[in-house]
Amino acid sequence: MTPTSPSPSPDIASPAKTGGGWNLRLVAVLIALAWPTQLLAAGGILGANATASVAQSFHTTQVAWFGLTLTLVTILLTPFAIKLGDLYGRKRVMLAMMALGAGGEALAALAGDFWLVLVGRAIAGFYGPFGALSFAAVRDIFPRRLVKSASGMIGSSVGLVALGTPFLAGWLVDHWGYRGALWFLAAATAVAFLLVALVVPETPRHAFDPGFDWTGGLVLGGGLTAVIYAVGQGQSWGWTDVRTLGWLGAGAAALTAFLFVERASAHPILDLRVLRRRPVALALTAGGLAQTVAFTMPGLAILLALFPHIPGVSAGLGWTAQHNAVVSVSWNLVMFGTGILVSRFLRGLDPRRVWIAGLTVMAVGYALVGFFHGNELELSLTSCVANIGAGVVVAGAPVLVVGVVSRDEQGLGSGMLNMLISLFGAIVTAGAYALLSAHSTVVDGTAFYQDAGYAWVFWLGALVTLLALALSLFIPPLRDPENEDAMDTVDPVAV
């Protein structure tokens, strides 16, 4: 793309160099990008643990909005964050997002009314698309030979977050309630702001046309938001309820309209030509499905661990949250260690083969969890198998995107992957609760789940992983960032 401005902009950086190895500066940049990226995962765990405290503090039956508000705002804003990052540089946009995120969490922590808590969470949702920009920033900053390993390390660090956050969540909520969790998120986001501001170098712009397709962004974000809202509420409303069908219909209509809006726009917010390329479509869909399983199944497994064990009524394990955190150390360590190991050697391996091997192991692992989850030993052993595959998935998905898009398209690819994870996550979670409800016993208005329901939840994870595996078999050879100049001479539409 040729700049339209009469003179070059001083913040247009040159492409990352091909050579170069790890040094203290790059390690510091990696930490500065990984911290706020994985803070998103930590925020999800902390928010889930704080939900009950919010409900009891405000005596509300609408506590689901405590988490849903942040998710919906994140989805709505993601296309805008992608485009703004291309226009003004990703570092600038990331700093603005983190400032809003910290302020939003602080407002929610200070709020005396539930509606004001939701306002704070909505503002905090501006921070949600950070992951879409952080992986793109890796492509801008790191030497090309380190892009795959750096992306994999940031992705695999989610295992470290999953390892420690449950203990942190229990301590914060037990001592200070939901406000403790929110204040921690505000403070941690402020630290992330300082890290990025001081350590991460300026990032280049990848778009130079100042036009901005606000209509397209609102139609896309609004359509995805409507679909996710309908899927999230479908279990409580009923899948044939007019409200569920209405929101699904509105979302589908908006997404269809988006295709026509973008074709007519002089400044499209998303380049649909990129998304129509077969390698991009396959990689994003397979990556979204696989990461959905890796991120969603452990959260659903918490239901099994914490629900009571009542013979004939509830097949939960009856653990405390602290006991669950202790037991889950084993499989979270496996996930983190596998991800780091894979990231370390990705440069010398074919990422597609590693990815397919990881999907195979994760599918087998969750199939085994479905059969064997009745005690600590069974759940630990089978979950460790599943998380060997999950470690490969969280490290490999960013590399998969790097391999099918150019440097200028990285923000779009990472952003679409994040949106698909949110969309698929809502669908898989709704499906899991439908399976649990089909095998449940209601006592005094509370649903308790039978063992068959838990088994089918894990088998659902295995089936979704197999779908991702089937799609991945058709992904063609990936681009190598080290040969980017040569690869960019090829017409990407023809690939």
Structural commentary:
The protein has 18 helices and 4 strands. It has 495 residues and is mainly α. It has 3 domains: 185 residues, Up-down Bundle (Growth Hormone, Chain: A), CATH 1.20.1250; 56 residues; 202 residues, MFS general substrate transporter like domains (Growth Hormone, Chain: A). The protein has a two-stranded antiparallel sheet with strand order 1-2. Strands 3-4 form a two-stranded antiparallel ribbon. Helix 3 packs antiparallel against helix 5. The protein is globular, with a radius of gyration of 22 Å. The N terminus and C terminus are likely disordered.
Helix and strand layout, with pairings?
Blueprint: H1 24-58, H2 65-88, H3 90-110, H4 114-124, H5 130-141, H6 147-156, H7 158-199, H8 214-237, H9 242-264, H10 272-275, H11 278-306, E1 309-310, E2 314-315, H12 321-327, H13 329-345, H14 351-371, H15 376-402, H16 410-438, E3 440-443, E4 446-449, H17 451-472, H18 484-487
Antiparallel strand pairs: 1-2, 3-4
Structure, briefly:
By secondary structure, the protein is an all-alpha fold.
CATH topology of the largest domain: Growth Hormone, Chain: A
- The CATH architecture term of the largest domain is Up-down Bundle
How many helices? The count is 18
Query: Could you say which structural class the secondary elements and strand pairing correspond to?
Result: mainly alpha
